[in-house]
Amino acid sequence: MKVHFVIHEAFEAPGAYESWAQARNHKLSYSRLYDGDVLPPSGEDIDLLIVLGGPQSPATSREECPHFDAAAEQALIRACVASGKAVLGVCLGSQLIGEALGARYKHSPEKEIGSFPITLTEAGRAHPFFADFGVSLVVGHWHNDMPGLTPDARIIASSEGCPRQIVQFGDLVYGFQCHMEFTPDVVDLLIAASPAEFVVPHRFVQQPAVLRSNSYVEMNNALFGFLDSLSTAYYKKETRIT
């Protein structure tokens, strides 16, 4: 499987997504936008597009952040969706998927940073891709916003602070507002890059010492199960087409 990562900032690393792809011997490619890389011209050479998070929002302009082109990323997302590729967005990436499909992103009711439980909806509990999640699962968070909902979108999971934690936009298209890719190394990068996030106490913001003490193994394993299911579904669809 050819997996392409769109990475907005060095401190928003692919973490467990990259570990999964490497362990399955998938072919990895990257657009490290912060380092001057460009986006692929199309989705032709991609099986799974993973668009990661960042401090930007879909409304961030080129003037505000020269290496971030929301319109270009949305065009790539639409191209991949139209050609039947698997697409997964994380945090900002999930909001860009919604925008690409015509749904405006929104501010989340609560800011969330840390490890807090998400609860699967009825649709989520019935979805075979999320069999490893149980009814509730503690996962990572680092956000202020959430994705918009298209008419056909289904909310798979929510949290006390955010009603749109996981959204299914299509059979092979998913948005994860939560950060199930967190590992200790990824969390350290985010803490170092965002000291201002911890100045004002908030009920859904854990301090760095707590963030560093959290275990991310269970959620990583649940993510791997989801990704295995997604890739299997993609291969089955490709087999039917060919």
Automatic annotation (TrEMBL):
<dbReference type="InterPro" id="IPR029062">
    <property type="entry name" value="Class_I_gatase-like"/>
</dbReference>
<protein>
    <submittedName>
        <fullName>Type 1 glutamine amidotransferase</fullName>
    </submittedName>
</protein>
<dbReference type="GO" id="GO:0005829">
    <property type="term" value="C:cytosol"/>
</dbReference>
<keyword id="KW-0614">Plasmid</keyword>
<dbReference type="Pfam" id="PF00117">
    <property type="entry name" value="GATase"/>
</dbReference>
<keyword id="KW-0315">Glutamine amidotransferase</keyword>
<dbReference type="InterPro" id="IPR044992">
    <property type="entry name" value="ChyE-like"/>
</dbReference>
<feature type="domain" description="Glutamine amidotransferase">
    <location>
        <begin position="44"/>
        <end position="185"/>
    </location>
</feature>
<dbReference type="InterPro" id="IPR017926">
    <property type="entry name" value="GATASE"/>
</dbReference>
